[in-house]
From TrEMBL:
<dbReference type="Pfam" id="PF02779">
    <property type="entry name" value="Transket_pyr"/>
</dbReference>
<feature type="domain" description="Transketolase-like pyrimidine-binding">
    <location>
        <begin position="1"/>
        <end position="164"/>
    </location>
</feature>
<protein>
    <submittedName>
        <fullName>Transketolase</fullName>
    </submittedName>
</protein>
<dbReference type="InterPro" id="IPR051157">
    <property type="entry name" value="PDH/Transketolase"/>
</dbReference>
<dbReference type="InterPro" id="IPR029061">
    <property type="entry name" value="THDP-binding"/>
</dbReference>
<keyword id="KW-0614">Plasmid</keyword>
<dbReference type="InterPro" id="IPR009014">
    <property type="entry name" value="Transketo_C/PFOR_II"/>
</dbReference>
<dbReference type="InterPro" id="IPR005475">
    <property type="entry name" value="Transketolase-like_Pyr-bd"/>
</dbReference>
Length: 300
């Protein structure tokens, strides 16, 4: 996804005169071509993530459309105060594009892991948060965000599904897509976990919904799927902190008795470096772990 991000952003800079790109050393060399063509609009600020966000806010207030990029912990967690004040408080729009996801850079240790980024950003209003599961989805989300004016976070990952589930039939909406129908419960798969969820629920009598956008949360689609069910059971599988969207489900189904289980990255810090796959299995996000959690919750 990051390679697609570089390719598409380089193209967008050629066609959108008010678009700018800000980096904080990470990935900066990937934009050498774009910097040579647009030296005033492609700026590497060095390892100064707070400044990265503040400059993005200033550019937005000056009428530009900034894209700020770094790894997730350095883009969201480290400069969170600047996001809150220099973007939200000032009413300045920007596009934040991260890489690394929760533990894609497992060899980098805890400093390069950010399972709490979506939960943290969800404490602020007005953000559209995309979690693409395929490079094609990431490209569509990026092109839409570049042409807009609002606050957008695009969370890229090295993990990807085999197909772009959110773009079936050319659709580019932000809502959930129904991948499978069932009657015993509903499982929502977010972003790059869709293929694993589909495999884990093979043969189970459950609905499977897919989402590549988690904020705003598509409660309308969820309600439509569970309509008519008695005491619906909902499982949401997210590739970041477990339970991040449980409150959103509660709000969507607030007038319906229901059960909900949030699966994702656990709070416990895993201190062995390992590989991304090993981290996923340890957090119960491998196929076997997901099937066990889902079937236990549904009672089947």
């Amino acid at each position: 996804m990051r390679e697609r991000f570089v390719e598409v952003t380089t193209d967008l800079l050629d066609t959108h005169d008010r678009l700018s790109l800000l980096t904080a050393d990470l990935s900066a060399r990937l934009f050498d071509e774009a910097r040579a063509s647009h030296p005033a609009r492609v700026v590497n600020l060095g390892i100064r993530e707070q400044l990265l966000i503040s400059v993005a806010g200033g550019m937005a207030l000056a009428g530009m459309r900034p894209i700020a990029h770094s790894f997730a912990p350095f883009l969201i967690e480290r400069p969170f105060e600047q996001i809150k004040l220099d973007l939200n408080h000032q009413g300045a729009g920007a596009v934040l594009v991260s890489a690394g996801a929760s533990y894609d850079i497992a060899g980098g240790g805890r400093t390069h892991q950010s399972p709490g980024d979506v939960a943290l950003l969800s404490t602020l209003p007005g953000w559209t948060i995309h979690v693409p599961g395929h490079p094609d989805e990431a490209e569509a989300q990026l092109r839409e965000a570049a042409a807009g004016d609002g606050l957008v976070y695009i969370r890229l990952s090295n993990q990807a599904n085999q197909r772009a589930h959110a773009l079936r039939g050319g659709a580019r909406g932000h809502g959930f897509r129904v991948l499978r129908r069932g009657t015993a419960g509903t499982v929502i798969a977010i972003g790059p976990l869709a293929d694993t969820v589909l495999a884990a629920t093979e043969g189970l009598d459950v609905n499977v919904l897919y989402g590549a956008t988690v904020r705003p949360f598509d409660g309308t689609a969820l309600r439509a799927v569970v309509a008519g069910q008695r005491d619906p059971a909902v499982v949401i599988v997210e590739p970041y902190l477990a339970g991040t969207s449980v409150a959103e489900i509660g709000t969507a189904l607030r007038d319906l008795p229901h059960r909900v289980l949030g699966l994702g990255v656990g709070l416990e810090e895993l201190r062995n470096y390992g590989t991304p796959r090993q981290h996923a299995i340890a957090h119960g996000l491998g196929g076997a772990g997901l099937r066990l959690s889902i079937t236990s919750f549904l009672g089947k």
